[in-house]
Design a protein that fits this description.
about 500 residues, Leucine Aminopeptidase, subunit E, domain 1, Aminopeptidase, 2 domains, 6-stranded mixed sheet, 20 strands, about 35% helix, binds ligand BES, binds manganese (II) ion, binds zinc ion
Length: about 500
């Protein structure tokens, strides 16, 4: 898909040729109970009052999310006009804009329309600029047009027709809007990668597959990559990570990807992603129902790879390190058993009371390893606890941090990126639940506040740097008829990095 920007002033007649330029369809917004303005007013004039007559007839009332496609419209360059209801202008928030934009794309994606002139990003969205509007529209379109067909052998006849979108923006916004379009496309590509990796089955997307994906990313985007195997992990004394992979025949991999966009000595942001390519629970075997969805237990890792791809394509001026511990969690005669005690890289001993609480066991060693980069901040991303879904459902990712400034930055980024997160507590009182009679700590803290105690466990390994944890168990993928990876929280992470880079 190709996205471009064209500056135009609707107060000056045909708007620098925007209304007369050839396209398959021009997308026009209509506010509820309000006279036509901007692009709508000009298209109305150029079509001898066609829009006014349609509104008067009651066929388009401007209700947010409503659409009406008009064919064979004379007087303008576009062959069709798609009218999109925006709701009341006083309530035109980023959410209302997003709803209207999605309705527009949905309507267009059911047609054979290939080239679109899109004017909605030029509308006055409360507290948001034109470049934000362009970027949000591109991400919404990429999200809605994503399809996962890699594993189908039968030809897919439903190929998307939409190929090219030209966004109109005000003259003063042109430069920023171009950056918005570039960022939007980069984010779309990053999210697609994250979604593909998540949707691939566990027998294809193995730890080795993730390592090869990282190597390819490094080659394509000029990143530095290192992949540590079993022997190196033993030498590093990652006893906790290695305890999880014991029952699997797939070799574990420890991926380190480095993007350098700033001076070599500038402290990097480190992203650590949970990469369990299949979580059977191990000896603490999970029930069978829905177990297939545990192929998604590497979505944290996928989001790190997708974010790094986006960061590299955007060319952000900061340093980012991605660390991915990846393995399978399987039962076997030699698998770790409940009650086993393992020693982490940090030296803390851990009593594994439940082998299904494996995410924290691989992450703690990766978090210890992160220390060597003297990070400005470390953020780990993990499908860590079912309890997070009970707490927050499927809308908000769980955010944990003792650092108010870092938590604030991440919450701001999540709002701006329409990728919501909600902060949950991390008070020391909860640490009590991780006490073990036999080791330094246990890997589970009982049923109360399961997501909090999981985060508390990780916090024990993160004292050397500012740290935040994102539990994406409820947001990384959808179940049911729409089963599939969402690409979250790539928008949140990318926005956080865009803000840190000041771009
Ligand atoms: N990967 C799961 C968490 C999960 C479960 C994410 C369902 C999304 C949907 C994690 O490894 C796990 O099994 N956690 C256990 C922890 C428990 C044993 C303390 C859980 O949430 O049940
Ligand atoms: Mn598990
Ligand atoms: Zn897991």
């Amino acid at each position: 898909m190709d996205f471009s920007i064209k500056a135009c002033d609707w107060n000056k007649g045909p708007a620098n040729g925007f209304s007369t330029a050839k396209s398959d369809c021009i997308v026009i917004g209509v506010f509820e109970s309000q006279p036509l303005s901007g692009a709508a007013r000009e298209i109305d004039k150029a079509t001898q009052g066609l829009l006014s007559r349609i509104i008067k007839a009651g066929d388009m009332d401007g209700k947010n999310g409503s659409t009406l496609l008009l064919h064979e419209v004379a007087g303008i360059g576009a062959a069709r006009v798609l009218l999109v209801g925006l709701g009341k202008q006083a309530a035109f928030t980023q959410k209302a804009y997003g709803d209207a934009v999605r309705a527009a794309w949905r309507a267009l994606l059911t047609t054979k329309i290939a080239q679109v002139a899109f004017t909605l990003a030029q509308l006055p969205v409360q507290e948001r600029s034109a470049d934000w509007c362009v970027r949000a529209a591109i991400i919404a379109l990429r999200d809605l047009s994503y399809k996962f067909t890699q594993m189908k052998s039968l030809a897919d006849h439903g190929a998307r027709a939409l190929k090219r979108v030209v966004f109109s923006v005000d003259l003063a916004d042109e430069k920023r809007a171009r950056i918005g379009a570039k960022h939007g496309a980069a984010l779309g590509n990053g999210m697609d990668l994250t979604r593909d990796l998540g949707n691939l089955p566990g027998n294809v997307c193995t730890p080795t597959y993730l390592a090869n994906t990282a190597k390819k990313l490094a080659k394509d985007w000029g990143l530095k990559v290192e992949v540590l195997g079993q022997k190196r992990l033993e030498a590093l004394k990652m006893g906790s990570f290695l305890s999880v992979t014991r029952g699997s025949v797939e070799p574990p991999q420890f991926i380190v990807l480095q993007y350098q966009g700033a001076a070599a000595k500038a402290a990097p942001v480190v992203l650590v992603g949970k990469g369990i390519t299949f979580d059977s629970g191990g000896i603490s075997l999970k029930p069978g129902e829905g177990m297939d969805e545990m192929k998604y237990d590497m979505c944290g890792a996928g989001s790190v790879l997708g974010t790094l791809r986006a960061v590299a394509e955007m060319g952000l001026k900061l340093n980012v390190v991605g660390i991915i511990p990846t393995c399978e969690n399987m039962p076997a005669g030699n698998a770790t058993k409940p009650g086993d005690i393992v020693t982490s890289m940090a030296g803390l001993t851990i009593e594994v009371l439940n082998t299904d609480a494996e995410g924290r066991l691989i992450l703690c060693d990766a978090l210890t390893y992160a220390t060597r980069f003297k990070p400005a901040a470390v953020i780990d991303i993990a499908t860590l606890t079912g309890a997070c879904i009970i707490a927050l459902g499927h809308h908000n990712s769980g955010l944990f941090s003792k650092d108010d400034a870092l938590a604030g930055e991440l919450l701001d980024a999540s709002k701006e990126a329409c990728d919501p997160a909600w902060r949950l507590p991390l008070d020391d009182e909860y640490q009590e639940q991780l006490k073990s009679n036999f080791a330094d700590l246990a890997n589970i803290g009982g049923r109360p506040a399961g997501s909090v105690t999981a985060a508390c466990f990780l916090s024990r390994f993160t004292e050397a740097y500012p740290w935040a944890h994102l539990d994406i168990a409820g947001t990384a993928w959808k179940s049911g008829a729409a089963k599939g990876a969402t690409g979250r929280p790539v928008p949140l992470l990318a926005q956080f990095l865009i803000d840190r880079a000041g771009q």
